[in-house]
Amino acid sequence: TCDTGDQQTTAAVQLKEAAATIVEGLRDVATYEGEDAVFECRLSRETAQDAQWFLGDVPLQSNEMNEIRVQGTRHSLTLRKVTLEDCGSVSFKVGQHSSAA
């Protein structure tokens, strides 16, 4: 706001948050049945609210079988005690960007 006493004008500032990009993608994991499989991905910035993990086409959430963690720009997925049914594509998506292993 600019106020001269007799006159006043006001303007607003609007910011759009830059989209996060994947700067370090997923890598393939080979492990034994019954062990954990850990996948990691690093983003260009910390706040990425639309990040999502998938096993095949199924979106994953943290539960007793999957641990999803975020530490700064690093996102990780731990598939606990994997079985042969867990074999396949794991992907991570944020905005329009994705990585798969």
Automatic annotation (TrEMBL):
Gene3D superfamilies: Immunoglobulins (2.60.40.10). Pfam families: I-set. Residues 22-94 form the Immunoglobulin I-set domain. Keywords: Cytoplasm, Disulfide bond, Phosphoprotein. This is OBSCN protein. The lineage of its organism: Eukaryota, Metazoa, Chordata, Craniata, Vertebrata. One of its GO terms (cellular component) is cytoplasm. The gene is Obscn_0. The keyword Phosphoprotein applies. It is found in: Cytoplasm.
